[in-house]
Design goal:
Chain B: This is Acyl-CoA/acyl-ACP dehydrogenase. The structure holds 2 protein chains of 2 kinds. By secondary structure, chain A is an alpha/beta fold. Chain A is built from 8 helices and 28 strands. In chain B, α4 crosses α9. The N terminus of chain B is likely disordered. The chains are: A alpha/beta, B alpha+beta. At the A-B interface, β7 and α4 of A face α10, α11, α12 and α15 of B.
Chain lengths: 444, 389
């Protein structure tokens, strides 16, 4: 009868080795098919050396429910990436809603808090980086109960296991906030080693120190908002400024020609040498330590410093790696600031709402509040995106732009005198955008 | 001036281990042939290799199966297969997985050198596993990233260079074998002008000294090399100057290492599942469970295979992706191997058990150049914005 019994398994109580009658233990002379009861008593467990008496019949257990196999981390907490205005706004909004939430702030910079728009006017005010810091990163972290990881870069993101890899270790999160901003987009003709970029305090501070010895020749490349503001600030600080713009007049992407021409005249009145319609072919350093800006038309400009203001771009690498939808910025839900991947939110310069980046200060606090509610699953009416009012910090010629101008639509002049130009864009009865150029009170 | 004909110095392969499947490197399914070797004779030998056996017989059979050259341009640049093969080997024996990596990157050096003296028969024999050699680039990789200084120094002499210095540990070498090495070229005043990379043949005048015993990877035939006026002729030069060459192959060099991490992790998950029928009722209380680990491993494997499609893609972002995937693999191997030991308990703690061996193998994956700390150091360097000075 025993010959027909199915082969059975026996488990070593000491080490868990399983003796399978079907397989035997050929290494110690037990042929496949050797029944357990036929094993000599002095046989030893091939793994741990105990004897046959320490084995018992093995009955496989029912598979354990995959309850613990849920990949969501048990170490709860929020991780915020980036300690600019957006990152700190997110930290404050989260802390306001939840006193006990563990928050870790990861940032490539020192984490010091400053008001970024001041970078556009601080040179002419004679300020240094220390003057601009309103609260050190470590003080703010202590006050808000945040673990700050300064000078730390985010290298990878695995949303499935909710792990964020950084240059100081891997962090688990329940909610992740991306507020890493955008980086200056440098064309190949503008090498990093020769061109300052003023997109954060560290970049500004380097330029400020380089100019600390007195009036210098500075070339500003790019006639957009940042280029125009910096050119004016540099000129007011006493430097000899050349503004190199590939368009016919400054802010050509934003303003109608009549307005741009006024700004151009104002810049020249301030002593800025504006070079419209030029393209930079390269920048080099000569033997005297000066920078030589080579223009595409063959002209050369010799200066002491070059500032690149050629626009910003959000780095796509992390988003692509983690499978986040990306289109000119990290795509977010316009109400909750949630990205396309659960548990990950984004705000500030790194995002795109309805396909458009939105790199302004004003919406940040509202974005942060909506985001914090969504991350903590609290009720909130949601963020409402609206085009912010743009005010250029060009004191020589203040410019205010409201609404959403259509780059293809015509501007109509509302009033035009020596002091001031007012224009608007209309679609039927509806005003799309209004523009005010110049000093004085706006007409009612 | 060349002192020995290189072909004569190359060690011949030992006879294949018994019971190995016949190999045909031209057919498509390299990984499954490697899998059979790894799960069969290699798995049986893993403990012995851990204690110091240098498994050249396994390496020879892997070579015949096509498992040592899939990544080469002449075999279709299948980095995915090279990584897959290395993973199958590492799943059963991390030491042999490391040997496969060292062997693979040496083949990469030869092929990418463009030196006709290196790309012909020498490379063919190497890729087939008829001769063996590894890589001595641990020190240079760190040196060129600014982490430490170069160990070998070269002087220009008629017809080539004379190289002196000591490399503390070089794996997958032995008398008659070879490795890829790099030396800084010194001018008359002692300053370094540039670097050269060359094939170092372990000829008689090359002193191989035994290293102190390591806690793992003892079967990797790791030696300290001392060179005194070792002559390097034109035919042995892989690159002169070496920096552009290293920059070109760096991502591929590091990407291949993910095969080790994938394999050690998969072996660890296998060990967890192995005891599930007996211990699942208590193991459910452990932090890391096999399904979640497997999901993470699948993600990593997919990522590595995607990167493997363009191993020579230049640029900062591609290198960052490779470095990050390498860290991801090392960290996962550490967690999975620790978890496997916790799951197996005393059974896995036996000196003969695989889980305790894999703990040491996983730590090797985490500390072999580039180690986790080097990878993070390098990524921080790459991500820092450069400003004018």
């Amino acid at each position: 009868m025993s010959e027909e019994r199915p082969f059975q398994q026996y488990i070593c109580r000491a080490c868990g080795l399983i003796y399978d009658e079907a397989e035997g233990d050929p290494d110690s002379g037990l042929a496949p098919g050797t029944r357990f009861e036929d094993i000599p008593d002095d046989w030893e467990c091939p793994l741990c050396g105990v004897t046959k008496a320490d084995f018992e019949p093995f009955v496989p257990r029912e598979p354990v429910d995959a309850v613990a196999a849920d990949a969501s981390p048990r170490r709860v907490g929020a991780v915020v990436v980036g300690a600019g205005l957006a990152g700190w706004a997110a930290v404050e909004a989260l802390r306001a809603l939840d006193r006990d939430l563990p928050i870790t702030l990861v940032t490539a910079c020192s984490g010091d808090r400053y008001h970024k728009p001041e970078l556009s006017v601080a040179l002419s005010r004679g300020q240094s980086a220390d003057d601009l810091v309103r609260e050190s990163g470590s003080e703010a972290a202590r006050r808000l109960g945040v673990q700050l990881l300064p000078r730390t870069f985010v290298t990878g993101l695995s949303p499935q296991s909710r792990r964020l890899r950084t240059t100081r270790g891997t962090l688990s999160y329940t909610g992740l906030v991306l507020a890493m901003g955008a980086r200056p987009a440098l064309p190949a003709a503008l090498p990093e080693a020769h061109c300052w970029r003023v997109n954060d305090l560290a970049g500004w501070s380097g330029l400020q120190r380089a100019l600390a010895d007195g009036p210098a020749r500075v070339a500003v490349v790019g006639g957009g908002m940042v280029g125009c503001e910096l050119a004016e600030d540099l000129a007011r600080a006493g430097h000899r400024v050349s503004l190199l713009d590939r368009h016919a007049y400054p802010l050509a992407g934003l303003l109608p020609e009549a307005a741009g021409r006024r700004l151009l005249a104002a810049q020249r009145a301030l002593g800025i040498a504006v070079h419209p319609n030029v393209a930079v072919a390269g920048v080099e350093r000569n033997a005297a330590g000066e920078r030589v800006v080579q223009l595409a038309d063959g002209e050369r400009l010799v200066v002491d410093q070059v500032v690149a203001a050629t626009g910003l771009a959000t780095e796509p690498r992390l988003a692509r790696q983690a499978g986040l939808d990306f289109a000119g910025g990290i795509c977010v839900d316009g109400r909750t600031l949630a990205t396309s991947v659960p548990g990950i939110f984004a705000l500030g310069d790194c995002i795109a709402i309805e396909g458009q980046p939105c790199r302004f200060i004003e919406p940040l606090a509202r974005q942060a509040e909506a985001l914090a509610h969504a991350l903590l699953e609290r009720d909130h009416p949601g963020y409402r995106h609206a085009a912010p009012v743009v005010r250029l910090k060009t004191r020589q010629l203040p410019i205010t732009l409201s609404g959403r101008p259509d780059p293809d639509a015509d501007w109509v002049t509302v009033s035009d005198d020596a002091e001031r130009l007012e224009m608007e864009q209309r679609q039927g009865e509806r005003v799309l955008a209004t523009l005010s150029v110049g000093a004085g009170r706006r007409a009612a | 001036m060349i002192e020995a004909a290189t072909a004569n110095a190359v060690r011949t392969a030992p006879p294949p281990a018994p019971g190995l499947p016949p190999g045909d490197a031209s057919s498509a399914d390299i990984v499954s042939r490697v899998e059979r070797i790894a799960a069969g004779p290699l798995a049986e030998m893993a403990g012995r290799i851990d204690r110091g056996h240098y498994p050249l017989e396994i390496m020879a059979s892997l070579g015949r199966a096509g498992g040592l050259g899939a990544h080469l341009d002449r075999r279709g640049q299948r980095f995915d297969q090279a990584i897959g093969a290395m993973a199958e080997v590492s799943r059963h024996c991390g030491t042999t997985g490391f040997l496969v990596w060292a062997h693979d990157v040496f083949g990469l050096y030869l092929e990418q050198s463009g030196n006709p003296a290196l790309c012909g028969d020498f490379l063919e024999r190497h890729a087939r596993g008829d001769s063996f050699g590894g890589t001595a680039l641990s020190n240079p990789m760190k040196a060129l990233s600014g982490i430490e200084s170069l160990a070998l120094r070269a002087r220009r002499v008629p017809g080539g260079y004379r190289v002196s210095g000591t490399l503390p540990w070089v794996s997958h070498i032995a008398a008659g074998q070879y490795c890829g090495a790099l030396a800084g070229v010194e001018g008359a005043d002692g300053s370094l002008s540039h670097e050269i990379m060359f094939v170092l043949h372990c000829r008689e005048e090359v002193a191989l000294r035994q290293c102190p015993a390591f806690s793992g990877m003892e079967g990797s035939s790791t030696w300290s090399i001392t060179l005194k006026d070792y002559f390097v002729g034109e035919d042995e030069l892989i690159a002169d100057p070496a920096r552009p060459f290293i920059a070109r192959i760096k991502a591929a060099f590091i990407l291949l290492q993910t095969g080790m991490a994938v394999g050690v992790t998969q072996g660890s998950i296998d060990a967890i599942r192995e005891v599930e029928p007996a211990l699942g009722h208590v193991n459910q209380h452990l932090d890391e469970r096999p399904d979640a680990l497997q999901a993470e491993l699948d993600e990593l494997r997919q990522r590595a295979l995607t990167l493997a499609k363009t191993p020579f893609e230049g640029g900062r972002d591609f290198l960052l992706e490779v470095l990050d995937a390498r860290v991801q693999g090392a960290e996962l191997a550490l967690r999975a191997s620790q978890s496997a030991l916790l799951h197996q308990g005393a059974r896995g703690y036996l000196m003969s058990a695989a889980p305790q061996r894999r703990i040491r193998e996983a730590h090797f994956v985490a500390i072999v150049t580039p180690a986790i700390k080097h990878l993070r150091w390098e990524m921080a360097r790459l991500m820092r914005e450069e400003m004018p000075s």
